[in-house]
TrEMBL record:
Sequence similarity: Belongs to the lcsJ thioesterase family.
Listed InterPro entries: HotDog_dom_sf, THEM6_lcsJ_thioesterase
SUPFAM superfamilies: Thioesterase/thiol ester dehydrase-isomerase
Protein name: Capsule polysaccharide biosynthesis protein
Family matches, as PANTHER family: PROTEIN THEM6 (PTHR12475:SF4), PTHR12475
Keywords: Membrane, Transmembrane, Transmembrane helix
Pfam (any one): 4HBT_2
Transmembrane segments: 12-30
Amino acid sequence: MASSAGTTRRVLRVVLPALIPAVAYTAYRFDLARAMKAFFTGSGKYSRIAALALLLWNWKSLPLAWTIRVWNAMIIHLYLRKSHPHTPDKLFHPVISKSHVTLLEVDYNIHKSNSTYFADLDVSRTHLVSHLMSRGLRIAADNVNTKLVMDPADPSRPAKGKLGIMLGATGCSFKKEIKPYAKYEMWSRILAWDRKWLYIVTHFVEKGAVRPKSWDGASFGPTRKGDGKPQDWEKKIHATAVSKYVFKIGRLTVHPAVIIGASGLLPERPGGWVTTENGMAKPAQPVTGGTLDEAGSTEWDWTRTDGELKKGLEYAKHFAALDEMHGLFDGAEDGALGSFGLG
């Protein structure tokens, strides 16, 4: 999700009022019923109907479809739905979004092209962050008034600038192909975060092969029955991807924990938080003692959040280390093989 809530709000304020009279006038001047009758009954109707069916079934690959899919996720969660009062125990729960392989996504191996997974990831991540952190994003977008993040150059004043959420990197490990027109699901959840990046893991899963044990809040479909947990979840996975986001207010980097905490998703942390010179929050003091596996309490406290965070960081740190590969570029110091077109 590389756009900001503030930008979307400004665009909607301009576009929607302009569209309403245009749509009304078009409907007044255009006889829709007659046009539809001519389309479905006139000469050449079978060709038109076949073309329409092809377009509808493959709409996901049409021009501007990616923009519509991403904006749809932001508008639904940030503007049309109320903020969900998710509690800290829901922080690592996944969001499930459904899709299918279109004709234009199929490569010469007759399966979903590896490159098309990344467009799907944009949509799935946007659903996750916009839904899970809607409260924090709204507060951060109005930082001048909410004073969520203070200006490190002048701690008495809030940081100024629009909220931005930028993708820093993404990588995907492919396990099993997805056939043409096959349906699948993307399960995205928070993996971990560090002082700069929020890490998200996404699993591409066979549609309907796995159901959650329960839904948070309203029901979104059937749930898994029984207490037994199958040991072959990996057989249901097509691919697994990791992505990382950075939150910005203007040019100031915001610690992911600030947005997560403003969304009501962090339990009270012993010692609290302090703000560094560059405006990023960090723990005021380390928390010692206690592990995720300690039995007894069913309360979701900081120890359990910290335990899940540390588990995720064990994977995220390897992904973050790939940034060092930028230093491997040497400008073809010893020569290059060639330069070719149609790249």
